[in-house]
Write a structure and sequence with these properties.
140 residues, mainly alpha, transmembrane
């Protein structure tokens, strides 16, 4: 049995999917900061979705600086959405750095994260196009 979704459900899903890049940037900031805290406490655990490049520097300060940068980018994207491209480029550079450093588990996790964000962005665009088609081409 199939049923047509109510327009408000589709609008909610489209808005939720379009916010994925900002949420992803906050999550990268969080995982990077947690990696810094784990480094400070002498733990041997690392969250691979966080940035790899800060590990190239001694101490945890670079982790906190990188986390603050990603959090600031995510916050600024509320007003200026294209700034998320900076976070994307930085994450791609970090992926390349992980590959250069032969940290293959980090590369795999970065690729998975990027793929999931890409899927969410694509879904959001398709849902918005569907909504626009339903309203006769008016932007939603």
């Amino acid at each position: 049995m199939s049923s047509v979704q109510h327009r408000s459900v589709t609008e909610f899903q489209a808005n939720r999917a379009s916010g994925a890049p900002r949420r992803w940037t906050y999550w990268v900031a969080l995982f990077t900061a947690v990696n810094g805290l784990l480094l400070l406490s002498g733990q041997d655990l690392t969250f691979l979705a966080g940035l790899v490049a800060p590990f190239a520097f001694a101490g945890a300060t670079s982790h906190f600086v990188a986390a603050a940068l990603f959090a600031a980018i995510a916050y600024a994207s509320l007003r200026y959405r294209p700034i998320l491209l900076v976070a994307l480029v930085l994450y791609l550079v970090d992926t390349a750095f992980a590959a250069y450093s032969t940290l293959w588990s980090g590369v795999i996790m970065h690729v998975v994260v990027l793929a999931l964000v890409g899927i969410a962005v694509t879904a959001g665009r398709r849902l918005k196009a569907q909504l626009a088609a339903e309203t006769g081409g008016n932007k939603v």
